[in-house]
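Sequence, please.
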């Protein structure tokens, strides 16, 4: 069982940066893949990035590739999403999620069993 809590969201100007954190409670977090998703008003929840249990493999949506970096620190039971060169289209609620069942990275929300409450990211123009 894993509980996830996101933090680090806020208001930032276009071109700015934010780092989101996802603090996990649970001994098995280090064995789970971790993903980040986002949902903007009126839109479906979309995949942002994922990272495997060891942190050795990562996968990004095309919309954020080159701007966002996913990372994890298993010793701290924490995942991160570094967001640079932010755009107004990045405005959304960002969620972290954990997948206990697959070793291969997945972009599908339904594959993730545990979710945080979300943190709002707003990028102004």
């Amino acid at each position: 069982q894993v509980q996830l809590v996101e933090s680090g969201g806020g208001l930032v100007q276009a071109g700015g940066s934010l780092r989101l954190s996802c603090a996990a409670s649970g001994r098995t977090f280090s064995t789970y893949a971790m993903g980040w998703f986002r949902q903007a008003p009126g839109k479906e929840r979309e995949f942002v990035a994922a990272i495997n249990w060891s942190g050795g493999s990562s996968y990004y949506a095309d919309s954020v590739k080159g701007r966002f970096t996913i990372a994890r620190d298993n010793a701290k039971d924490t995942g991160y999403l570094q967001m640079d060169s932010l755009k107004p289209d990045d405005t959304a609620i960002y969620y972290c999620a954990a997948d206990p069942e697959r070793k291969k990275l997945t972009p599908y929300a339904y594959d993730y069993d545990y979710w945080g409450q979300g943190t709002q990211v707003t990028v102004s123009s």
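The longest strand covers residues 18-25.
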